[in-house]
Recover the amino acids of this structure.
């Protein structure tokens, strides 16, 4: 099947209550076996220490200095300076009684201290645990207690939130270290609860440059990453040092085979959250290759300015970011004169045809790259050679646009926290992989498992089914939850819950989600049944179907109003018409949307779980229309098919309103 995968096992039929499964595939670059980690690598610390020895004076971590409220040029710490700082912080951790195997929380935005804290943990064989609050109001408190975090590195602006939850976290947490300064008041608050609180400089003074570090093993737990993904409490995904290293080395192998590996000349722009696995892997890869990492200011208003000042060569984004970039560029093109628009379209079509013929990025249209597309390239700083997209599927029209206009290689991938970030990636310069997530990484074997209840057959001529994975980058289990681990790891295969379809090229396309959980374009998981149960508490409705997908950043819904309530609203607001016509009334729709979101706020739903549009349906979801099961459970694929035009209209209206 295709030129980029090889079959290593045949499929099997259904038996003993288990669904059928398709053949097992590997990437062509792993046809003789999955990638092995060299014996001299015991942990990601080896990546860092080797780069320090090779490039001690190369710029490693940089940020813009703020003076009089304005950001200036990037100032840098060299690899040697970061190494020395890491040794001091690690030594100070030991002085505070933090031992190998203990847990260290890291809570804050991307900055040099985040990476120094991470490397200090790795050097001391301490498990680092990213803390972040997008998993819910009590997530930080839950993670500290569940992971038994004994020390936490915390951004200065996050001191108040962590001190607020501190009374419920003191059974394990004994040390807090600010990335910046600490006020006397904050120190007193912590000390009253038996917790020591230090500024970054104060804590570094406790340590020294002791290079006598604890021994390390590949099987050590490198990090515990908490993720939502389902209803209920966050799950702690255990990732070993072996998994972390294998992911980085596989990425390097694929770049070596298909494009160009990272070098000490490369510069990476750090703005995707370091609390998520995607950016951790990217920055660890840069460290492995001795590249430089420049951090954004943390303000979306200055994102483009940071890019232009830094001039990165490697840029990673998620679909929501790329969608904003696409929209901004298209708005400027639309506002330009007829001559410029015509020239752009001619250049676009010419380069697109050449890419479709198989020409590499630099060969497709050097003339138009310089004449027409260079301004777009300059918007990213002018030097980007490699652009990556992950976290959610990239819409095909945006992927095509970026490939044509940005004058660099673009690769889209698919991964989960449980697979230590990417487990599939599209091959650089292979245009037919557009619209897919590519082929398995060289550490992974993949197969599809049939989902008969959804009509997906892994053994059909067009194989479709749940994506199942095995290999060296997979997680070790969910922390303290062997029951949840057993639910998703069956017979050695990790069941992702995502439904894929093999393409003739050997690439995989994500087409559905097995469970009623999906990811929005910004990477946030939505447990839709849980959300619907909250909205159902609104007394003005009888039924609701909430919809979202990986290409959109917000939710919409189809709602069956409570007839009497809507008619009472109409009478009180001098709106005329029968129930059916009221359901089409714009004011009625706005009223219902406001009331639903009021219910959501009352029950503490998060911002991305709020609705941006509703369609009012006068008729109940019925068995006669095949919209519900005999037990009145929503049949989501059928609902989408039935209300497709309504959903498209809701998204269109919401975007126009925002614009």
């Amino acid at each position: 099947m295709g030129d980029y995968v090889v079959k290593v096992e045949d499929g099997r039929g259904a038996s003993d209550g288990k669904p059928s499964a398709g053949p097992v595939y590997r990437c062509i670059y792993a046809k003789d076996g999955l990638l092995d980690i060299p014996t001299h690598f015991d942990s990601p610390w080896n990546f860092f220490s080797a780069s320090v020895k090779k490039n001690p004076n190369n710029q490693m971590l940089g940020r813009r200095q703020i003076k009089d409220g304005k950001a200036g040029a990037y100032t840098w710490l060299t690899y040697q300076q970061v190494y020395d700082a890491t040794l001091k912080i690690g030594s100070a951790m030991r002085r505070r009684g933090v031992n190998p195997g203990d847990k260290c929380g890291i809570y804050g935005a991307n900055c040099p201290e985040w990476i120094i804290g991470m490397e200090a943990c790795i050097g001391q064989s301490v498990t680092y645990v990213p803390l972040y609050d997008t998993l819910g109001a009590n997530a930080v408190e839950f993670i500290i207690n569940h992971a038994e975090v004994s020390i936490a590195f915390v951004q200065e602006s996050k001191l108040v939130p962590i001190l607020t939850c501190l009374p419920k976290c003191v059974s394990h947490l004994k040390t807090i270290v600010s990335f910046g300064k600490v006020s006397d008041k904050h120190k007193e608050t912590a000390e009253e609860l038996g917790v020591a609180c230090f500024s970054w400089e104060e804590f570094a003074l406790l340590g020294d440059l002791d290079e006598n570090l604890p021994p390390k093993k590949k099987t050590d737990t490198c990090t515990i990453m908490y993720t939502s993904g389902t209803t209920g409490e966050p799950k702690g995904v255990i990732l070993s040092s072996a998994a972390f290293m294998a992911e980085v080395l596989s990425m390097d192998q694929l770049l070596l085979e298909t494009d160009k590996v990272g070098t000490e000349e490369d510069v990476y722009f750090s703005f995707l959250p370091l609390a998520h696995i995607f950016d951790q892997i990217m920055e660890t890869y840069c460290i492995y290759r001795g590249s430089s990492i420049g951090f954004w200011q943390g303000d979306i208003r200055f994102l483009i300015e940071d890019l232009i000042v830094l001039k990165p060569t490697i840029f990673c984004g998620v679909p929501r970011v790329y969608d904003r970039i696409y929209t901004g560029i298209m708005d400027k093109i639309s506002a330009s004169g007829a001559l410029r628009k015509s020239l752009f379209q001619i250049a676009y079509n010419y380069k697109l045809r050449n890419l479709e013929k198989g020409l590499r990025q630099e060969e497709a249209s050097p003339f138009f790259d310089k004449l027409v597309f260079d301004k777009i390239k300059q918007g990213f700083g002018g030097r980007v050679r490699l652009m990556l997209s992950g976290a959610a599927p990239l819409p095909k029209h945006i992927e095509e646009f970026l490939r044509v206009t940005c004058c660099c290689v673009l690769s889209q991938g698919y991964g989960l926290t449980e697979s230590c970030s990417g487990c599939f990636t599209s091959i650089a310069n292979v245009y037919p992989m557009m619209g897919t997530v590519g082929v398995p990484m060289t550490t992974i074997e993949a197969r599809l498992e049939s989902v008969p209840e959804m009509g997906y057959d892994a053994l059909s001529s067009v194989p479709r089914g749940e994506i199942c994975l095995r290999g060296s980058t997979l997680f070790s289990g969910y922390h303290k939850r062997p029951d949840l681990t057993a639910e998703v790891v069956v017979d050695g295969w990790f069941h992702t819950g995502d439904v894929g379809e093999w393409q003739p090229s050997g690439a995989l396309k994500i087409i559905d989600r097995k469970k009623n959980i999906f990811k929005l374009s910004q990477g946030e998981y939505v447990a839709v049944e849980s959300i619907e149960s909250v909205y159902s508490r609104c007394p003005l409705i009888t039924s609701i179907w909430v919809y979202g997908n990986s290409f959109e950043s917000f939710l919409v819904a189809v709602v069956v109003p409570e007839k009497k309530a809507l008619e009472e609203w109409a009478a009180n607001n001098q709106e005329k018409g029968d129930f059916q016509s009221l359901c089409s009334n714009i004011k009625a729709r706005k009223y219902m949307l406001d009331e639903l979101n009021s219910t959501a706020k009352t029950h503490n739903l998060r911002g991305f779980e709020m609705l941006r549009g509703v369609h009012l349906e006068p008729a109940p979801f019925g068995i006669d229309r095949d919209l519900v099961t005999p037990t009145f459970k929503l049949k989501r694929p059928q609902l989408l098919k039935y209300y497709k035009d309504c959903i498209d209209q809701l998204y269109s209206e919401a975007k126009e309103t925002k614009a």
